Amino acid sequence: MMKKVRLGIIGLGAQGGAYASFITEGKVNNMVIGAICDIDPAKKAMAQEKYPDVPFYDNYIDMLESGDVDGIVTCVPHYLHPEMGIEALKRDVHALLEKPAGVYTKQVKELNDFAATKPELTFGIMFNQRTNELYRKVKEIIDNGEIGAIRRTNWIITTWWRPQGYYDQSAWRATWEGEGGGVLVNQAPHQLDLLQWICGMPKKVYSNVKYGYQRNIAVEDEVTTLLDYGNGATGVFITCTHDIIGTDRFEILGDKGKIVVDDSKKVTIKRLHKAESEMSDSMSMQDVMRIFMGGGATEIFAEEVIEFESVWGGQHSAVLENFAANILDGTPLLAPGSDGIHGVALANAIHLSSWLGKEVELPIDEDLYFAELNKKIEEEKSSAILIK
Fold this sequence. Notes:
It contains 13 helices and 15 strands. By secondary structure, it is α/β, with parallel strands linked by helices. It folds into 2 domains: 5-127 and 313-336, 3-Layer(aba) Sandwich (Rossmann fold); 130-309 and 344-382, Dihydrodipicolinate Reductase, domain 2 (2-Layer Sandwich), CATH 3.30.360.
């Protein structure tokens, strides 16, 4: 009987380093560091100084086959997530993938299909915002039908400001070949996951995306997308990396109320006493004047405001702990790895709509997306040659 899960951390950068710290500081129950892997020699020296008793590998396959680890977490460029997940599961090593699950759905589907052949293994994804009590509460309200059927969603999430120096840190960063996209695959995957987790997947998207709009990069730094849920409900999703002031506001309008989330800290829920359609059918203009001009809006709804506190790192630790618990005793996963494909599908659809200049349906044509992505990569390579 395994007592503690020995985690192999692949990639000792900012995220991998944070996970190593959480584990060594005792913030993750039932987990220890089994091994660390990185191809950078400088990281080896750092690991040997900070974690002298932890085996270090410069090849992740060697680590997977060493017997030092029970599970791994992939803190590496996005394209590598599916490959590493498959290679781990092949060797009966549990896999926790960083977000996003991959760059395009075709590779994520291959991962999901293989993981399905290994149901005895734990396959998770680091959607740490699913442990956030605020968003769990919002999902509970929607699932319970407390604000009725969704009519519209609006999420403006522009708190991702990044200066040019951020993009200049590494040659692979903010490139089609190295990262597979910009804000949609780097900063906003959590919101894309939460949006579909809470409100469901749209049926169609139409997007206006700017590439290298305010930064000297090839990928997107400005996104505005119209969502069509297929039942009359619509939505708007806006994100960017050039708004230094930034806004984080998520609104969900239902036929029986509205939820507004501000700064991922405060939730305002307004529950209508009667469905909007009932009031429309029964209220006279005199009633409307009395309520809205006389300040009697509380006659039609009850308001609840809940504020949440968030400790940085706590949500990541919770996913690691839940991953260990699933391995040890079968505790249900908060974020099953197979769920990772939904956010990738949404990001792919937003990209494809902008590349084709038209509305696209979900699920998208995976082969068409892959072909268009490869065109972007080839254009990027040609531009780099010309610059040289």
